[in-house]
Amino acid sequence: MNAALPSLQDEIEFMQIRFAGEIFEPLLSGALFWPAQRTLLVADLHLEKMSSFAASGQLLPPYDTRSTLHALGRDIADTGASRVICLGDSFHRDEGVRSLPEEDRARITALTGSLEWIWLAGNHDPTPHQLGGECSTSIELGSVALTHEPTRGANGLIAGHLHPAARVMLGGRSVRRPCFAHDGRLLILPAYGVTTGSLNIMSQPFHGLWHWPDLKVTMLGRDRIYPVSIRRLVGG
Questions:
Q1: Lowest mean pLDDT: which of 9-18, 42-51, 52-61, 87-96?
Q2: String of b and e for 172-184 (b: at least 16 CB within 10 Å)?
Q3: N or C: which end of the chain has fewer CB within 10 A?
């Protein structure tokens, strides 16, 4: 992948996303840092997803929660964030709060006790829980509104839920990676959880959400972040 993507734009060392009059910094992990607010935004952690699969008889290694929390702790330390806002579906199911191993529960409690923490409800985890921090359905900070599910006609909304990914064709090769995407009115974050899937932004669930000519796409590479022209996007 790294051999192909630099042709999109060379010499990019630092990326910014300008949205709703604010400047954000996208991270390789899929988090979005808001320097002016010292706030780290993450969407769709889907903690305890593997334990949910195990409950249905699909026995998979149950280390997704620990890996996601490790990445989150690293992003908090690297950015110096004083606030974290989780944009819903932080747990793969409401019962995931109860299935947490003690080590992971202690890690979450340590994180939520170290800075301001806001959990926004998602469709997978609509019920408030007692893991520290504040539980809400949405929040507004200045010109920006934050919630789980994107809506048509939004203005200044940051959301998650759809796990966006971009697919491009370069030199006869197909490259598909998670991405940030916005049109100046609606910004959708990629899923943060280590075991979450992704959905091509050209697929039906995204139709009508953005004003396509204004769409800006920022793709997560393996070790860098790349802007992608919408002319390069392909379906599938």
A1: 52-61
A2: eeebebbbbbbbb
A3: C
- Helical axes 64-79 vs 102-114, angle rounded to 10°: 20
Which of 132, 124, 134, 127 minimizes the C-alpha distance to 160? 124
Backbone φ, ψ for residue 97 (5° rounding)? -60, -35
Which pair of structure tokens corresponds to residue 169? 């064709």
User: What CATH architecture does domain 22-232 belong to?
Assistant: 4-Layer Sandwich (3.60)
Q: Which residues of 201-231 are buried (b: 16+ CB within 10 A; e: fewer)?
A: bbeeebeebbeeeebbbbbbbeeebbebebe
| Integer Cα distance of 192 and 178 in angstroms | 10
In whole angstroms, what is the distance from residue 206 CA to residue 231 CA? 17
More confident residue, 52 or 137: 137
Residue-wise pLDDT tens digits, 222-234: 889 999 999 999 9
pLDDT value at 69 more than 80: yes
Distance CA 168, CA 173 (A): 8
pTM above 0.85, yes or no: yes
